[in-house]
Specification:
This protein is an alpha/beta fold and about 550 residues long. The protein has helices at about 5-20, 45-50, 55-65, 90-100, 130-150, 165-180, 200-210, 210-225, 230-250, 260-265, 270-280, 315-330, 345-355, 390-400, 400-410, 420-425, 430-450, 470-480, 485-490, 495-515, 525-545; strands spanning about 30, 40, 70-75, 85, 115-120, 155-160, 260, 285, 290-295, 305-310, 335-340, 365, 370-375, 380, 415-420. Strand 13 and strand 14 form a beta hairpin.
Length: about 550
């Protein structure tokens, strides 16, 4: 709805083909300075070496030849080689009317063409509470899912539960050690590679209270010097931590379509099937009594790695490869993973394996970088295994869901994030979340006041919207017009942070407008036009915040 990008791209391509008989894919971007236009293209730079003309000369020729689509007023070449485009006044008026009429369709597109896409994110081991890196993954991943759905993709979200393997066994050993401590039998610490967090001791106390009879049998057996059956407490601690993870994810507004259990997956026989497929594809080596993967035949620069250990146990890589093959077996056409920085060494291996299994170009990994919590300018360190951990729930309790999500999303995921707790706690214009939400609340109050005066922006016709002539009004309308482009860019680049900056820029334009102009005044035509503009702004802010999983309060 109101996205002129594709139409402009086609118009530019046609002009280039007519002028130079060349097929070059144009790139449309948002102008950095609205004084020069709303959208711009660098097509002249792409053509310069091909047609042997200067970018400035090419820009002039393209601007003269292009058949502008409805909604674009003019094409203006620059001496440096850019071609800038301006929205027409009619387009902006139609835009405002369209937003008011169908607010939930503003910027909606079908670029995804209902492609079945799966996004896996967080997927932290169920060995303890989720930390702030997982919180960032939850915020970014769930926002990305919302954006892709709005952009026309058939999107599914999944959390891979690594509820099997050595780490789970070590978790059980650590839990049993804490139960023994709680019983006063000894003060042995968990195993050297175990989990030392206070949460283990706390859950041991919960277990003894919840299952007094089972706890009694455990203690009595230990007191006899015998080894009890610890299957029940080991299963319980895993289930309890998984439930805590699910609760924490809901707490930060990051629900999942599916939680996929590794323990259950191992029972299906699919791992063996994928191993056999790799063998048939001649990607298997036997070395030192182990089974290795080698993708030399696929021209992949990745050293061979172990799939099956010499004792017959599957490696993490083997199980993960089979799991990803299962995703494609379930009908997903595109598969994306969001991984933390600690998985960097596994990226090349997984991509090589997916290529060997025939999924090149259908699978990719987005890397989410570390989070540094800052308080009074100093870093707060965290470690799951030493017990000195700042959890997802703690950060949300401290600053709130909305602020936490915005701060986690607002930086490009592949960049390190310095999370300023002091700024996040502020309820002032310095806090970007507060600033954006305050704009929405202010507009809500304006609309309520207008409603009480009998003014309904839905009844505004395009003729009345001609009363929007002030520079600040037109700038707000032009900013609204680029929303479809922002949404498309966020979906295509898998980057929700663009929406954060867009909303902040929209709020920065609104607040000065609010301070300078009276929306509901004596001039009925101007009043109707400004109320309609405010209604469109409110819908855009609410829509953008909603895609980010952030509330849009009516009052503050």
């Amino acid at each position: 709805m109101f996205d002129l990008t594709e139409k402009l791209e086609k118009a530019i391509s046609s002009a280039v083909a007519e002028l130079y008989n060349e097929a070059v894919e144009p790139e449309i971007t948002i102008s950095e300075n609205f004084e020069f236009g709303d959208l711009t293209t660098n097509i002249a730079f792409k053509l310069a070496s091909v047609v042997r003309k200067s970018p400035g000369e090419i820009a002039t020729e393209v601007a003269d030849r292009i058949d502008l689509p409805d909604g674009v007023e003019c094409a203006e070449p620059t001496d440096s080689g850019y071609v800038n485009f301006r929205y027409s006044a009619d387009f902006l008026r139609n835009l405002l009317a369209g937003i008011i009429a169908k607010p939930m369709d503003f910027g909606r597109s079908d670029i995804g063409k209902k492609t079945k896409i799966q996004i896996e994110y967080v997927s932290a081991n169920p060995t303890g509470p989720l930390n702030v890196v997982s919180a960032r993954a939850a915020a970014v991943g769930s926002s990305l899912v919302n954006i892709l759905r709005y952009a026309g993709y058939d999107t599914n979200s999944e959390y891979y539960l690594n509820d099997a393997g050595n780490q789970i066994a070590m978790l059980g050993d650590s839990f049993i050690a804490r139960i023994r401590q709680g019983a006063g039998l000894d003060w042995e610490i968990p195993p050297e590679d175990g989990y030392f967090g206070d949460y283990i001791a706390d859950l041991a106390a919960v277990y003894s209270d919840k299952f007094p009879q089972k706890y009694k049998i455990l203690v009595e057996t230990w007191e006899k010097g015998e080894i009890p059956d610890t299957e029940h407490p080991r299963k319980w601690i895993i289930g309890e931590l998984i439930q805590q993870i699910k609760d924490d994810l809901e707490y930060i507004n990051a629900g999942f379509d599916r939680f996929f259990s590794e323990a259950e997956f191992r029972k299906t026989g699919k791992i063996e099937k994928v191993l056999e497929t790799l063998r048939e594809n001649n990607t298997i080596l036997r070395r030192e009594d182990a089974v290795w993967f080698s993708a030399d035949k696929y021209d992949v620069r990745e050293e061979p790695f172990v799939l099956v250990k010499s004792d017959g146990e599957y490696t993490y890589a083997m199980v993960d490869i089979a799991y990803h093959q299962d995703k494609f077996d379930r009908g997903f056409e595109l598969v994306y993973d969001i991984w933390g920085p600690d998985h960097h060494g596994h990226i090349g291996r997984m991509k090589a394996a997916m290529k060997a299994l025939g999924h090149e170009g259908k699978f990719d990994i987005l890397t989410l970088q570390q989070v540094n919590l800052l308080e009074a300018g100093k870093k707060i360190k965290m470690s799951k295994r030493t017990g000195n951990i700042v959890t997802l729930r703690e950060i949300v309790d401290d600053v709130g869901v909305d602020v936490a999500r915005f701060f986690f999303i607002a930086r490009r995921m592949e960049a390190h994030l310095d999370f300023d707790l002091d700024l996040a706690r502020k309820e002032s214009d310095e806090n970007p979340v507060y600033y954006i939400q305050y704009a929405h609340a202010r507009i809500s109050n304006i609309l309520e006041f207008a409603k009480n005066k009998g003014i309904d922006p839905k009844s505004a016709d395009r003729k009345e919207l001609e009363a929007l002539t002030e520079p600040e009004e037109l700038l707000l309308a032009r900013k609204l017009a680029i929303w479809p482009h922002i949404l498309r860019k966020s979906a295509e680049e898998m980057s929700p942070h663009y929406i954060c900056f867009y909303l902040l820029e929209l709020a920065r334009l609104f607040h000065p407008f609010y301070s300078k102009y009276r929306v509901v005044g004596d001039d009925k035509k101007v009043t109707m036009a400004r109320v309609a503009l405010c209604r469109a702004l409110k819908e855009a802010l609410a829509l953008g915040l909603g895609l980010l999983g952030i509330s849009a309060p009516e009052n503050m």
